[in-house]
Amino acid sequence: MLASLSLILLCQLAGEVITRGLGLPLPGPVLGLLLLLILLLARDRFSSIARGPLRNSGVETASKGLLKHLSLLFVPAGIGVVEKLDLLATHGLAIILILAVSVMVTLLATVLTFRLISRLFSEAP
Predict the structure, then answer these.
(1) What is the spatial distance between Cα 16 and Cα 22, in angstroms, rounded to a whole number?
(2) Contacts of 18 by beta carbon, 8 Å cutoff, 6+ apart
(3) Domain spans of the chain?
(4) Which of 1, 16, 25, 78 has the fewest CB atoms within 10 Å, i.e. the most exposed one?
(5) Residue 5: how many CB atoms within 10 A of its CB?
């Protein structure tokens, strides 16, 4: 599991180094996740050719362990909110309004995208 967590963190580090080095407008962890996906796909393709599919590798075990304790990752965010309660009290109404508008825009965009895609697929032969 330690090697798998190291691989996950190395992919994230590589993503950070690449995005900062090239000045890409992409978060480093996102690029690191893409690198990890490419590595896992290459591993699965190679393993199916060489010796059959891998059943339960360490990366899957490590990721399941991280998902089990995912709620712990919300503790720093909660502490940050408590630390900035004065700003929240000052701008709380504006934050709630912005959150409500962003939720509505997201829902509207999702509905319009779904309707567009369903029309395109219903017209296809």
Answers:
(1) 10
(2) 24, 28, 31
(3) 1-68, 72-125
(4) 25
(5) 16
Amino acid at 63: S
What pLDDT digit, counting tens, does each position of 35-46 carry? Answer: 988 988 887 677
Please tell me the predicted confidence (pLDDT) of residue 114: 96
**Residue 59 in tokens:** 């990366």
User: Using H for helix, E for strand and C for coil, what is the string for 50-81?
Assistant: HCCCCCCCHHHHHHHHHHHCHHHHHHHHHHHH
Give the max Cα distance, the chain. Answer: 62
* Rounded distance between C-alpha atoms, residue 66 and residue 33, angstroms: 15
**Which pTM does this prediction carry?**
0.50
User: 27, 35 in Cβ contact below 8 A?
Assistant: no
| Buried/exposed 26-49: b ≥16 CB within 10 Å, e otherwise | eebeebbeebbeeebeeeeeeeee
pLDDT at 51 over 70: no
- Sign of the C-alpha dihedral, residues 59, 65, 71, 74? negative
